[in-house]
Amino acid sequence: GNWKGGEETRCCPVCNKSFQVKRGINKLTCSEECYVEWQRMTTTARGINKVKVNCAYCGNELQLFPSQVHEMNFCNRFCLAKMFPKNAENNGNWKGGNSRYYRNQTMIRDNHKCVVCGFDVVVDVHHITPRANGGTNDFSNLITLCPNHHRMADLGIIDLESYRDFSWSPDSWTA
């Protein structure tokens, strides 16, 4: 099933000897000695085509291949994280968040407890106005509830409009 047609003849880039290799095998040189020599030869030339650019955050000089140069270049992931913090709207790639972000921020706001009874062993995040009825993932529409109160809210037994919090946003919370 994996047969690719036998062997092919290649030329060693170090000693110029021809050698046989099975098709589909990535073998560059004829021997281990030639491979070590090939690595030594190509390592010194690897930096020749690099261009100098500056880190977008700290300004340190970087040497990158032309294919690696982007609109914004960073010397490491720490500079990238400082330039684009992961806290919501301050992130340059922010596109409105996902359900996990809203769930976690709502639970932080409500101290990981049901806002009705204070139960904190198992909690859910509930949409006061269901998304099917036009509700959004806005923090004023989300609330943390225990499973009992969540089910009661879904059935319409309890009204949660009085629990809406329009004043809180993720930026207003401090650690």
Could you explain the architecture of this structure?
By secondary structure, the chain is of the alpha+beta class. It has four helices and six strands; from the N terminus they run ββαββααββα. The strands form three sheets. It has a two-stranded antiparallel ribbon with strand order 1-2. It is elongated. The termini are far apart. The mean pLDDT is 80.
Order of helices and strands: EEHEEHHEEH
Low-confidence stretches: none
Number of strands: 6
Strand ordering within the main sheet: 1-2
Rg calc: 30 Å
Number of helices: 4
Shape: elongated
Average pLDDT taken over every residue? 80
Helix content: 10-25%
- In percent terms, what proportion of residues is strand? 5-15%
Largest sheet: 2 strands, antiparallel
> What structural category arises from helix and sheet content?
alpha+beta
Name the assembly state: single chain
First-to-last CA distance: 60 Å
Task: List the keywords.
alpha+beta; two-stranded antiparallel ribbon; 4 helices; 6 strands
Give the gist of this structure:
The chain has 175 residues and is α+β, with helices and mostly antiparallel strands. It is built from four helices and six strands, in the order ββαββααββα.
